[in-house]
Amino acid sequence: MAEEITIQLNDESLKVPSGITVKKALQLSGYKVTKFPEKEALFVPCEVGGCWSCAVLIDGESKPACKTPVREGLLINTSLPEKHQPKRIIHGFTGHSVGGVGTPWRLKHVHTYIEVACFASGCNFRCPQCQNWDITYNGESSPMTPSEAAQRMTAARKKFGVDRMAISGGESTLNRAWLIEYVRALKSLNPNADARIHIDTNGSILTKDYIDELFDAGMTDIGIDLKGCTTETFMRITAVKERRLSELYLSTAWSAVRYLAERYENIIFTGVGIPYNVKLISLDEIGLIGKKLYEIDPKIQVCALDYRPEFKRLDLQKPSYDDMVEVHNVLKAAGLKTVICQTEHGHIGP
Ligand code: FES
Question: Taking the complete model, does pTM exceed 0.85, yes or no?
Fold first, then answer.
């Protein structure tokens, strides 16, 4: 049996087992902990210490509850001060010549830098074939405030001589307070009309009010990766285990695409990413996705990504060029106007 220790939670003494995290101690004391943002609940989406959505005051300092251990006498305060600056672990800030799902196709075949990008640690998915896993599941680096990240990004924009500034991940949207402040800070440092603020996301927590807030802050371009259109496929690709949570994530991502098309057509540039690998999703489902997207907006940019062996799925075989031609044909047959397919020999254009 674990030894009991005493901690102070919001000025009250609490006995908890030693060796647990602050998150677990909060749960034991009755706090609601969630994987989808809810009022009055502690949002703990990544659990690796990357996103800092779960930050609380620990011994007077903001720290992630999901990975900070308790110890005798620890002081926890769940109310962050009013002037508290959110933090998050961010990597990158370098030039890219390919762009992301939310980069317009007309820029993608320019063989020079087209944007600068940074990558946020922490993700609410556990995709075994994650292509950016060393950053995604990194909870060890020092976190940055939105203003520090915006300054780094602005300096990178100048260095690489581009107008586009992208954030990807990991999952960029997890720490909402951080992302909104970051986009605002970026907009204020880059007030000229040419500056493009681009967010790549899995869309799983991107509610309508979140999109509105990002737009008001200065977001101009967005790429949403849809991990299928059936819950089974979504769970296979993301390794999210809970069915109801998977349904919520998937429906939120699809609703985000629909809302962007209805409310922000020609205002926010929107691109959609679709995964393809025969072991993860069938061509029939690709066809269904194509039809659903056609109903939303036939002109929406759709990019099929050839999921390759990475991370914990080294058994996967990279889709061949011919496989991706087939994917392209299926999406075009659904009536979509702008279909791009990533292949081992570069992109197949619209
Ligand atoms: S949930 Fe704790 S850092 Fe992401």
Answer: yes
